[in-house]
Write a structure and sequence with these properties.
Order of helices and strands: EEEHEEEEHEEHEHEHEHEEEHE
Strand content: 25-35%
CATH superfamily of the largest domain: Translation factors
Distance between the termini: 47 Å
Bound molecules: flavin-adenine dinucleotide, FE2/S2 (inorganic) cluster
Radius of gyration: 19 Å
Number of strands: 16
Helix content: 10-25%
CATH topology of the largest domain: Elongation Factor Tu (Ef-tu), domain 3
Number of domains: 2
């Protein structure tokens, strides 16, 4: 194919929804050139790659398993899951916003423009946006902010008004505010001034509910905030979705490393976050 700058693509085949295979099979492994890779602040990096058409079809909330180079002489076992931060289809670019925490992401952070990145995906079940919703609330904290960006973008494209509550330790870590501002209102709640306290976030959510600005809730990145949204959602019959983070190995369904317990119709149920999620009905999510 002309102008195709990614190096190679392979597929992992399987029958859809057989219990072991992800519904999006065949899943693709691609080697994508790094286009840009910059520090956003002292903890997070923004990674941009040139991606294949299939990768660019990723939906909000879906993720890729990235093969991270080793940051030292040892091996890095397993790929690392990272949700899509932004898809720029016109320029064929896919973006990730990630926190550098351990050996995998430290290795990932060493990539420079021109290097290749092996990615498997897009994986998992993403967010859903119902046609009747006119105003939605997204609430993210920490790395959860990266995951919430694409659903906010999609809502904006569909004319749905977004109120984004960005919770962070400090102003500098309340990232992507400019992206959220393009589709609605941003409210930053910080540890530094105490506004991230659950009571304050609850007061903000209650105000938004009273003002009819909360047809649906979306959240990621904090157990405490998830529990709060879940309680208010139940109280006011507001549907909600939660993007779960969970340690993964294969990311494709067979290893069952990523199993978590959910509560479905009053019964406890084990589900794999990588294929049955990572986005789940908020009322079915249990804390951790
Ligand atoms: C579906 C999904 C989407 C994610 N999206 C993002 C994102 O957009 N931005 C971002 O910064 N982070 C995201 N994460 C978290 C990210 O995967 C971890 O921060 C990363 O795997 C840490 O790897 P490490 O080797 O640097 O850290 P280490 O702590 O050394 O990792 C050791 C092991 O634990 C796993 N692990 C550690 N922390 C997490 C975690 N929070 N979630 C899942 N596995 C973890 C690693 O994958 C690795 O297998 C996401 C996680 C999941 C499951
Ligand atoms: S089944 Fe292997 S990570 Fe989910």
């Amino acid at each position: 194919m002309q102008n195709q700058s990614y190096a190679s693509a392979a597929v992992i085949t399987g029958q859809p929804a057989t219990g072991h295979s992800p519904a999006q099979c065949p899943v693709e492994e691609t080697i994508c050139p790094v286009v840009a890779h910059d520090w956003v602040n002292e903890e997070y990096k923004h990674l941009v790659v040139k991606a294949t058409p299939k990768a660019l079809a990723a939906k909000p909330g879906q993720f890729f398993q990235l093969l991270c180079p080793s940051p030292d002489e040892g091996e890095v076992w397993f790929r690392r899951p990272q949700s899509v931060y932004r898809v720029a289809r016109s320029s064929g670019r896919l973006e990730f916003l990630y926190k550098v925490v351990g050996r995998g992401t430290k290795g990932l952070a060493t990539l420079v423009p021109g290097d290749n990145l092996s990615m498997v995906g897009p994986l998992g079940v993403g967010f859903k946006l119902e046609p009747g919703w006119k105003n939605v609330v997204v609430l993210g904290r920490g790395v959860g902010l990266a995951t919430m960006a694409p659903i906010s973008q999609l809502a904006g494209e569909r004319g749905v008004r977004v109120t984004a509550i960005l919770s962070a330790r400090s102003e500098e870590l309340a990232m992507a505010a400019d992206l959220f501002e393009t589709v609605g209102t941003v409210i930053k709640v910080l540890d530094t001034d105490g506004t991230s306290a659950a009571e304050n976030v609850e007061a903000i959510l209650r105000r938004l509910i009273a003002e009819h600005k909360a047809d649906a809730f979306f959240t990621c990145g904090s157990n405490r905030l998830m529990q709060l949204m879940k309680r208010l959602g139940r109280e006011h019959h507001i549907p909600g979705q939660m993007a779960m983070e969970q340690i993964m190995a294969c990311g494709l369904g067979p290893c069952y490393i990523c199993v978590r317990t959910f509560e479905v119709n009053g019964k406890r149920e084990m589900r794999r976050v990588c294929v049955e999620g990572p986005v789940f009905d908020l009322q079915e999510c249990l804390g951790w």
